[in-house]
Amino acid sequence: MRERDHLPPLEFATKIATLQPTAPLPILGKLRHAFSLEFGFEHPVMQSEAGQFLNRLRSSGMEIDDPYPSPQGELSSASEDVDGQLVAEAEPLCPPLPVPAGVLGSFNLRMANTGRAILSSRGETPFRLACKIASLESGLASEGERTDLLIDLPPGRGITQPVRFRAPETPGRYRLSVLSLLETVRWLDELCSFEIEVVPEDSVVGDVWNPTEVARDYQSDHVHAFDLLWQWLGERRNGTSAILEIGGNRSPMVGHLGVPAFNLDVDPYGLMTASILAGRSGHVTHIVGDGMNIPFADGYFDAIVMFATFHHFPDPIGLLRHLRTKLATDGRMFLMCEPIGHVFAESNYVGYIRELEHGAYEQSFQPWEYAAMIREAGLVVCDNVMDVGSAKIALRPA
Ligand SMILES: C[S@@+](CC[C@H](N)C(=O)[O-])C[C@H]1O[C@@H](n2cnc3c(N)ncnc32)[C@H](O)[C@@H]1O
User: Fold this and answer.
1) Residue boundaries of the structural domains of the chain
2) Residue 223 and residue 122 in contact, taking contact as beta carbons nearer than 8 Å
3) Ligand 1 probe mutation, 42, 49, 272, most atoms within 8 A of CB
4) Assuming Cys at both sites, which of 94, 105, 195, 310 could form a disulfide with 372, CB separation 3.0 to 4.6 Å?
5) How far apart are the C-alpha atoms of 367 and 388, rounded to whole Å?
6) How do residues 246-263 score in pLDDT, each as one tens digit?
7) Which ligand 1 atom minimizes the distance to the CA of 45?
8) What is the pLDDT of residues 285-339, one digit of tens each?
C-alpha cells in the first residue's frame, strides 16, 4: 500500500458521499484520504476485483471519473500466427457427468493464455475451440461444435470459457478432447481430454434442484434472497453466532440482519467507504482480505454468506473447500444470487462481456456444475431455490 502525494478531487468525494444522503461534511476529507491510498495485489485477478466498487457504481448509472486516471492502451484484435506464440492451457472445471445421447451440451473450461501473443476470436482467422469425441470402443471420432472465445485473451490472462459439444447418438464411453484452431489456417494444440459417459436420454436421473419460473431484476432478486437467508439462518440469527459475508463490498447484506457480523472483501475502497459512511454505528466489522485465505480459526463460523460473489473466484471448488474448513460442524454456507447457465460470445450479454474486459472474473455455472463442485468440496445441499438465472443454495458439511 502507498499513499499518493495528492488527494483526489473534492468533487469525486462529494459524489461518493451522496451514497448516504445524511452523511456529515467532515467525511469528505476522510473519503479523499481513503481514495488517495493505492493498493498492490500480487494476483492480477485480485488487483482487478479490488476495483469493483467504482466499476459497480458506474454500471448502476452513476457518472464518476477515475480519481487517478491512467492511460489505457488498446489491444490489437487479431490472433497472429507467429510460430509457437499461440499457446493456451486448459482444464475442465468439472468434466460433464453422464450425458444424454444426442444433446447439445456445454461445460466450463478454465483456460489461460500461456503464450506470447493475443488469443482473439475476432478478425479473419479467429482462435477457436472445438471438441472432438472418439468412441473408446470403436475408435471412431467426430469433430463437432466450435466455440468462440468470450473476449480477447492477452498473454497471461485466464478466464472460465464455456465450450459446446454435441453428445454422440449412441450410448457408450467416449474420450472428449478440446482442441484449439486458427479458423481457415490450421489446427493448434489439444488443450485437454477426458472420458465421458453417454447414456440413453430417458435414463438420466433428476437432481436436487428446485427450479422456478421466476425472473427478477438484480435489486429485487437480492431482496428476495435476503428473505430466504433470514429464513434459512433460523436460530443462527441469535446475536451470538459467528456470521461472515464474503464479497459484501460497500453494502453487505448481513448489515440488515441486525446482529454482529463480519464483511470480508478484497476491495479496500468499498470497505473504507462503508466504514467511513457508517461512522460508529452499524453491526458490521469490515475486513480487507482474500476469500481464499480468510484470517479466522478453523471451525469458527456458524454461517458464511455470499451474494453474487462465489462466481468471481477463479477456483470455485478450492474456495468451497477452504470455507468448509472455517465452518463449525453444524455450520451453514449460503450461495445467493449466483448466475445459472452458460454465456457464449454470441449471447450478446453486453454487461457480462464488459465486466470480463475490465478484468473481473465473471463466470456462470449449470446446475450440474453446482452439484459437482459442491460434492467435490465435501458439502451437501440443505435447501435451494433455482430462480431464472439466479441460484440460492444453502450448504452444510457432508
Ligand atoms: C459482483 S460483486 C458482488 C457485490 C455484492 N455482494 C452484490 O451482491 O452486489 C463481487 C464481490 O466479490 C469481491 N471479491 C472478488 N474476489 C474476491 C476475493 N478473492 N476475496 C474477497 N472478495 C472478493 C469483489 O470485490 C466484489 O465486491
Assistant:
1) 1-68+207-398, 88-203
2) no
3) 49
4) 94
5) 12
6) 999 999 999 999 999 999
7) 16
8) 999 999 999 999 999 999 999 999 999 999 999 999 999 999 999 999 999 999 9
Ligand 1 atom nearest to 336, measured from its CA: 8
- CA 97 – CA 99 distance, rounded (Å): 6
> Tens digit of pLDDT for each residue in 53-106?
988 888 788 888 888 876 554 444 455 555 567 889 999 999 888 899 999 999
- DSSP states of 5-49: SSPPPHHHHHHHHTTSTT--TTHHHHHHHHHTEE---SSHHHHHH
Residue nearest to atom 9 of ligand 1 (CA): 308
Cα(102) to centroid(ligand 1), Å: 38
**pLDDT tens, position by position, 156-198:** 999 999 999 999 999 999 999 999 998 888 888 899 999 999 9
Relative to the CA of 306, which ligand 1 atom is closest? 6
Which is nearest to 164 in space by CA: 126, 133, 187, 130?
A: 130
CATH architecture of 88-203: Sandwich (2.60)
